[in-house]
Amino acid sequence: MGLVLDTSAVVAMERAGVELPDALRRLGTDDLALPAIVLAELLVGMRLGTGKRRIEARRAKIDELREATRVVDFTAEIAERWANLFAILERGGNRIPANDLTVAATAAHLEFSLLVSPQDEAHFRRVRGLNVVTWQPE
Predict the structure, then answer these.
(1) Does the predicted model carry a pTM greater than 0.85?
(2) What one-character-per-residue DSSP string does 106-134 give?
(3) Which residues lie below 8 Å from residue 90, measured CB to CB, with a gap of 6+?
(4) pLDDT per residue over 62-92, tens digit each?
(5) What domains are defined for the chain?
(6) List of residues 6+ apart from 4 with CB closer than 8 A
(7) Contact by Cβ (8 Å): 98, 40
């Protein structure tokens, strides 16, 4: 089964000081997906960074990530899944942030697990049937 990467997991890897390619290899799957919204969030983090070296280092990490994964666009089929999940969560009083719902809808559409940070963003667990995996530093 494949794995969708959430921004929180990528940031946790960076903060832990692990080399991204090594960390991704240790996940045990070659089928890694990066929702386009996660790419956008990472690019925002890069652009809001300070200092030329830091910005360049972040850009290099994003480029490594893009080489190691496939970027998944927000398609009409994922939009249908997003709308369905939104309605279910809204009716249950369990709304989650729109970007995270996009990540969850992408994972559900692909039938992949979702990798999140060690803090395990609990709102992802509100999505019934979504297999949430917590990244742990070794």
Answers:
(1) yes
(2) HHHHHT-EEEE-TT--GGGGGSTT--EEE
(3) none
(4) 999 999 999 999 999 999 999 999 999 999 9
(5) 3-134 (3.40.50.1010)
(6) 32, 33, 34, 35, 72, 103, 106, 107, 110, 112, 113, 114, 115
(7) no
* Chain-centroid distance, C-alpha 128: 18
Question: Which helix H or strand E contains 42, and what residues bound it?
Answer: helix 36-47
Residue length of the chain: 138
Of 137, 123, 117, nearest in space to 6 by CA: 117
Per DSSP (E only), the strands in 6-107 are 32-35, 70-72
Rounded to 5 degrees, φ, ψ at 83 are -60, -40
Residue 36 exposed, middle or buried by CB count within 10 Å (0-12, 13-18, 19+): middle
* Residue ranges in the chain modelled with pLDDT below 70: none
